[in-house]
Amino acid sequence: MQEQIASGQVEISELRGKMTVKLKDKVLFAPASAGLNKEGKTALDAVASAFRELKGKNVVVAGYTDDVPLGSNSGFPDNWALSTARAVDVVRYLQSKGVSQAMLGAAGFSEYRPVVPNNSAANRSQNRRIEIALTAAEGRRSWRLRRSRSPARLDSGTRRGEVASGPRVFPGS
Hints:
Blueprint: H1 2-6, E1 10-15, E2 18-24, H2 25-28, H3 38-51, E3 57-64, H4 79-96, E4 104-108, H5 121-127, E5 129-136, E6 144-146, E7 153-155
Parallel strand pairs: 3-4
Antiparallel strand pairs: 1-2, 2-5, 3-5, 6-7
Helix pairs in contact: 3-4
């Protein structure tokens, strides 16, 4: 991954225990496309190599766009769909390279989390990006339907093998 960092294709930062790998969109994708290009696959090969043997981590791939509306020929209805499709494509590629699918997740943020104002071509380029966040995996919860006299609802308050006793009150319910 050193080569990709030295060439400016990849940036790595660490803040409050979260490591983030940032890749510029032009490294990974053609404009208004979610298909990974050759250069992008090479950069992601280095990421996958670094992440392949990790245990007890979460890897969340986030897609971001600028605020320019997509043309009707893009194949995407809006920047939400494009940012999410790009994140999912990266997740699938990392999985194909041996990164555990149990660690992987994808999110699309469209144009709504810019790192700089979208007021110039250079700034819009910075906002079109993929960020891969690596964090410690917290205890996993098992979501399941719980039987009760009231309508069925999801309960995350019990651990596997435990039986829920009495009513549970959740904020907002």
